[in-house]
Amino acid sequence: MIKELRSLTMAQFIDILCGDAKALRGGFSKKEDVKKAKTEIAFEFMSLSEPAMASGWLAGEARKVKAKAEVQLFKIMSNLIAIEAYSEVRELLSAYGLRGALSDDNLKGEVRSRLLRAESDCKRLLAEDSAVADSRTPKQIRASFDQQTASLMAFFKFQIDLNTINAAQFACLIAQAEREIKAQKAIMAKR
What we know:
Blueprint: H1 10-17, H2 31-49, H3 51-82, H4 86-96, H5 104-133, H6 138-156, H7 167-190
């Protein structure tokens, strides 16, 4: 079972991104495990090749976790309201950052409103995530990497064999090319 980017050739990495999990070489009992391994490997590639994009992806993941936590928090508050534990709900809302004296009826309405908003936010974030995941076909993914490979070969003036180079090295080449291009642009801007 492969879990690290450096253990994959670039061709295997592209196959994995296109949905062919055979390159991971088994060891996974569930589809969720395959998806998790694929995500971890893709994130490792992104971290090496485009650190800013990786940071943005992590921020998006943090937003999804926060949205899910808010849904659970407001469900707990709804349950507490159902057993008329209003003081505990007020404590939780205060810890959440909402202060103010609310009557029991207003408290019910506030929690119901916040729960609906949290569920809506959570659904929207998850829908955006699945729309992005489903937006590129394997053919488009392969074409993108073909274009990137051609650009790297032209920039560095050497051949790249995707069946030989490991994915971590390829990612580092992308980052190196980006740094050199930015440095060249900075020099040109000074003239």
